[in-house]
Structures are given as C-alpha cells and as structure tokens.
Specification:
The protein is an alpha/beta fold. It contains 21 helices and five strands. Helices cover about 50% and strands about 5% of the residues. The protein has helices at about 20-25, 35-40, 45-50, 70-80, 95-110, 125-130, 130-135, 150-155, 155-160, 170-185, 195-205, 210-220, 230-235, 250-260, 265-280, 285-300, 305-320, 325-335, 345-360, 375, 415-435, and strands spanning about 60, 80-85, 115-120, 140-145, 165. The N and C termini lie far apart (about 70 Å).
Length: about 425
C-alpha cells in the first residue's frame, strides 16, 4: 500500500488540537510510515541506513503530499542528528552560509547536522554548487526534497554525491486508511455517504495533505446530513491535476500521447489528450504535436492524416473552446487508427545526412537549364529526356551528381497507401532496368 501514515494514530503528539489536522497526524517514527516501504522498510535504502547508523546525502523525489518533509525529520530523529530545515523558496545565499557555519560549529562538539532543503530544485545552479564542499567534507548530511525530475533540475555534480529516492503517489487504499485515522483522532465520522467518500478520495489525486485539509473543511461546518457525491462536488472545489506546462509532467503526457498514437491505441491516446486539455494545456500546442505526428509516424501510409490535422487546427481556430476541441479529438482518433509508417521520417534523416556529407556537388549537366548560348555550348541540358514524351511517362534517366551513386532514402512500407507507392516504384524500377 502506498500510504504515508499509519492507519492507527500514534499514542502521543506534541501539537495541540488547534494545529491543522495534517500536522496532528504526522507520523512520530519512521515505523509509522507504511507506504514508502521500498525506501523506509528493512530492505529499503533508508531502512538500511538507519540500521547501520550511518546516513549519506539523499534527494527525495515525489509528488506533493507524500511525506518528504516528514521522512527527513524522522530520519534525523532515528540516527540522532541535529535537524535544520530551509526552503529554497524563502532562503538565499545568506541563509545557506549561516546554516553551514552553524553546522560546522556543532560538528566541532560532535553533533552532526541533517540539512533538509525543501524545493531544492528552486536553487539556481550556482547555489546548488555551493552545497558541494559542505556535503563532501561531512559538515552536513543533505536531504533535498523535490517534486521535479532531479535529472533535469539538479546539477550533475550534486546528483553524483546524493542518492535519489523516489516516493510513491498515495493510492486510493492508502488515502482511505488516512481518512480512517483522521476519524479516529477526531472521534467522529466524516459527514459523507460511501459514494461521496470515494469521490473525496478521488479528488485528492494522491496527495494526503490535500485530502486531510478537505476533511478538516468538512468537519469545520455543521452539516445536517451526510453529503452525496453531487452535494460534495458543490461544497468542495476539486483539486486541479498536477501539470506544469514547462515541467516534467508536460513532457511525460505529450510523450505518452505520442507513443499511444504510434501504438495505434485510440483509447489510451484519447485519455492522454484529455489529461492534457483538462489540465489547461494550450490546444494549439497539442495540435502542433499532432501535425508533426501525421508526418513522422503516419506519413504516406495515409496522406489524409496531415490534412485531417490541419483541418482540426482550422476548426479549432474557427470554433474556439470548447466546441473546437471535438475537432482535436477527431484528429487524434484518425491518427491512432491510421496505418503507420516512418518511411518519410527515415528518408529525411538519410537525405539530410547525404546533403551534409557531399557538400556542393553539381547536378548532372543534362538536367540543368540552359538559358544562354554559352551554357548550351558547355553542355547544359544536352541529352535531357523529357519524360512526358515517353510512352509510360517515364524516362529512367539518372538525376544524381556525376560523382555520386544513386541513393535509396525513401523505402515505403506495405501498409496503407504506401503499398501502392511501393508498387509504383517497383514498376518504374523495372522500366529503368529495361532501358539499360
């Protein structure tokens, strides 16, 4: 189970009943955390570190509300380290210098420091480099927390000195257990029907802290009777899905959409399209990606795919939101169900490489125009075979530079319209052989 909290509340908690519910339900030991067993259990990285009594610097990467701050604090308690927390949102260079200086002073007296840096990805590259000497000499054990992919957001030098641990998103079973624990602490049930309770869990989108805040809101008012799903929806604002347009979530979803289309799965493709558009993605961005896909992955297997995507773009421009989104759906489904070919994409790559490799080779003289007498005298246009004058409308002439052998870039598949193209090319090749 991917749960942050134990279903049974701890026996004591230093916070008062005025503290937010999420604070009052924070685990008191690492053993209270029952969902990140892959890192906190006996075989997990943190479990092994605690058992050995020796910590290394780590980066906790996971979605909001999965317990990164709690794990860091309890980790310090478990191995008897001084705990210092800073936030990259509110801290600057002066705060870091002060934290490092204090940690060095405490180290002289035999007390080591666990420095927890929340939202560590918000520090710029130079600030991240500032951690390196203090991590290397053991002045601090660094525990960074981030919701963003460390590969993109953290310096390689810092990553090489820290172990990245991934926290799981809380699943429905975990969130249900969290609500049960909250009800035990509050000594009252949530004023919800069973269906509304399931709906409340779904709105949390894996965020335990958000779920507890919503539960606290429900308990803060005197409701005459339990709410059903419709009444709950009117009472609480649904949590917006996590989706930053310039962050990893954006690239993950467009990658999932592209690969679902390539895999000819219209159902999955439509799901990821919905994920993007309902989260606020710019429809024209999605359309640009669909247009690209039409050429890259469908190509001449179905030439109408590109036409469909451009028509969807025009329809969206004309209708706007939300009516125009149906045209995007139509284009998405067309691409997913179209025959696939990347022959044009591969041909482009190969032709571009040849163009770079061969430089400025002249085309053969017989296909060059000769608008002047001099150009005719030196052979421009001499011997050109006008294809329309041939019975089959095909001359089979050699159009390649004299010092370059004919290349094979475009190789059509036997799928969709490209099967007919392949047959036509084979027919022309037979005519070319007959001419020679």
């Amino acid at each position: 189970m991917a749960d942050l909290f134990s279903p049974d509340p701890p026996e004591r908690h230093p916070l008062t009943t005025d503290a937010p519910l999420a604070e009052r339900l924070r685990p008191q030991t690492l053993a209270d955390i029952v969902g990140q067993d892959h890192i906190t259990g006996p075989e997990g990285a943190i479990g092994r570190m605690v058992a050995a009594g020796r910590l290394s610097s780590i980066i906790l990467w996971g979605p909001p509300g999965t317990g990164k701050t709690t794990i860091a604090r309890l980790l310090a308690d478990a191995v008897k380290l001084r705990f210092v927390a800073i936030s990259a949102v509110f801290s600057g260079v002066a705060d870091l210098k002060r934290a490092f200086a204090e940690a060095r002073d405490h180290a002289r007296t035999g007390t080591r420091t666990l420095l927890f840096v929340d939202e560590i990805h918000r520090f710029n590259r130079a600030q991240q480099d500032g951690f390196l000497p203090f991590v290397e000499d053991g002045t601090v054990i660094l525990v960074g927390a981030t919701t963003e992919n460390p590969s993109f957001e953290l310096n390689a030098a810092l990553l090489s000195r820290a172990q990245v641990l991934i926290l799981n998103r809380l699943d429905a079973e975990a969130l249900a257990a969290l609500l049960t624990r909250a009800e035990a602490v509050e000594a009252r049930a949530l004023p919800l029907t069973a269906e509304a309770r399931a709906a409340l869990i779904a709105t949390a989108d894996g965020d335990g802290r958000f779920l507890l805040n919503q539960a606290e809101t429900l308990w803060s008012v005197d409701l005459p009777e339990p709410l059903d799903p419709a009444a709950l929806g009117a009472f609480l604002q649904r949590r917006v899905a996590v989706y930053d347009k310039d962050r990893e979530g954006h690239y993950n979803l467009i990658s999932a959409l592209h690969k679902s289309l390539r895999g000819s799965d219209p159902q999955a493709a439509l799901y990821y399209l919905a994920r993007m558009l309902t989260a606020g993605e710019e429809p024209l961005y999605v359309l640009r990606r669909l247009v690209r896909f039409a050429s890259e992955d469908v190509g001449l297997a179905d030439p109408h795919a590109l036409v469909q995507c451009l028509a969807a773009k025009d329809a969206y421009d004309f209708l706007g939101h939300p009516e125009g989104e149906l045209a995007i759906v139509q284009a998405c489904l067309y691409l997913a169900t179209a025959p696939k070919s990347n022959a044009a994409y591969k041909a482009q790559k190969a032709a571009w490489k040849s163009a770079r490799d061969t430089g400025s080779l002249m085309p053969p003289a017989h296909i060059l125009n000769a608008p002047t007498k001099l150009m005719k005298d030196i052979g421009y246009g001499k011997g050109y075979a006008y294809d329309h004058d041939r019975a089959a409308g095909f001359s089979g002439a050699d159009y390649w530079p004299d010092s370059m052998t004919p290349q094979l870039y475009y190789q059509p598949t036997d799928r969709g319209f490209e099967k007919r193209i392949a047959e036509r090319l084979a027919y022309w090749e037979d005519l070319r052989r007959a001419e020679t």
